[in-house]
């Protein structure tokens, strides 16, 4: 395997074009029935320092009655919390990055150039680290991971020239994986799907059906399981959740096919079985999930650790699942059918949990104001 890494991408004049309002033209353009997201003024921060925004206000929502932080998002996919308050959200089908301001309201940041949305592909996972935005996106030549400097102050942020970190990840209309997150070891982790070809998941030379581990600059860490390879684990169908417990344990959620969705404890170099097995198999060649559910009750996407528990956003299950970290085999289900499909969840610096709905992804039944971000104290 010879993945392409760290190639500088020349940005054409329209690349990462600054969007002055969420009514900018492009896929998912707001209509009279779906007005653009609000652009309320935000507290000022130090220009050029995206982490220097105002201190976050305490959340007032509860699990039973969550607070609404943002509405009118179009096919949102991922939340990246900003250390000083507020967050960035990726929109899969519009390829836009939207800022949720610390003081309320939203503002557009940029339209990412070169994204080719199709089916489950588009602008997917995002993460913020050391003043840069990282993203996972579907392009004409497959899925890729890129980054750019995040500049400006709240409500006036822009992106610098994009830098390609890893390309050549197989893409398809479904099973693109797409979650990226930084671990406590400072490494960048990414989930990839089998892109509709199950055999790729068991092929160590393919980037499909894997969890990948990279240095922040896209190079391969010296202590990865296979020297020179970004592959950290294999045997995955379509994982979309990554989170770490306080003791450094990596947890991942994964979409099954017809039988079982999974919650897995991720171990370096391990094989999770797909397509040879789905769910727990008791086969010593593979790592069994610590918990599994019928897909109609789950379809687990983003996850986060907060308040001594793991929180899981469920799409088909239209619910938020809580898994206590001291008992990974048990769980409780909340919000059943109350807020539609849930795509992502994140732990905010103030201790609250942010949940991103996903009813405008073409498979849900959006209500007025969807999609939205809901917040509560765990």
UniProtKB/TrEMBL annotation:
**Xref: SUPFAM superfamilies:** Soluble quinoprotein glucose dehydrogenase
Protein name as annotated: Glucose/Sorbosone dehydrogenase domain-containing protein
On whether Signal is a keyword of this UniProt record, the answer is: yes
The segments labelled Disordered in the record are: 27-69
Membrane-spanning parts: none
Entry's InterPro entries?
Answer: 6-blade_b-propeller_TolB-like, Glc/Sorbosone_DH, Quinoprot_gluc/sorb_DH_b-prop
Signal peptide span: 1-23
**Glucose/Sorbosone dehydrogenase domain residues:** 73-363
Q: Where is the composition biased (Low complexity)?
A: 35-58
Task: Say which species the protein is native to.
Answer: Agrococcus pavilionensis RW1
Q: What is an example of a Pfam family matching this protein?
A: GSDH
Q: Does the keyword Transport apply?
A: no
Q: Which domain of life is it from?
A: Bacteria
Q: Which UniProt keywords apply?
A: Signal
